[in-house]
Amino acid sequence: MHTSDLGSNTRGHSVLDSGTGAPAGLDIRLSTGQARTDIDNLDLGIISLLRMRREVSQRIQQARVQANGPKTDSDREADIARVYRSCFGDSGDEVAAAVLRVCRS
User: Fold this and answer.
1) Is the pTM higher than 0.70?
2) Composition bias, kind Polar residues: at what positions (predicted)?
């Protein structure tokens, strides 16, 4: 198969919808609906992980306060922000800030 054959059938007709880029005849709403379901399921997983992270973070915060230390560790939070930034670029700072904010409450 040549690269020029991609996107066409054996008769030279396009097999891709010119408007959506999806395979011709595919109901894009079905694909979108499934993708939205996938996103909803991923969001539920993220929420569950954030709740677990918050519980662990709160235990650490309580231990720090009981030891007469600060509730938060700015160096540790900067390290966390660097990890998110390395994964998501500049948006990583916002993601890290949101995660840290949720876990402090």
Assistant:
1) no
2) 1-12
Per-residue model confidence as pLDDT tens digits over 26-48: 666 668 888 899 999 999 999 99
Residue 13 tokens read as 């007709």
Beta bridge partners, 16, equal: 23
Tokens of 70: 């600060």
Q: Is residue 52 part of a domain?
A: yes
**57 closest CA partner among 8, 101, 10:** 101
CATH number at residue 49: 1.20.59.10
User: For residue 44, is it within any domain?
Assistant: yes
- DSSP states of the chain as a string? --GGGTTB-TTS-B-B-TTT-SBTT--HHHHHHHHHHHHHHHHHHHHHHHHHHHHHHHHHHHHHHHTT--SS-HHHHHHHHHHHHHHHTTHHHHHHHHHHHHHH-
Residues 99 and 30: their CA atoms lie apart, in Å, by: 33
- Measured from the Cβ of residue 96, the count of other Cβ atoms closer than 10 Å reads 21
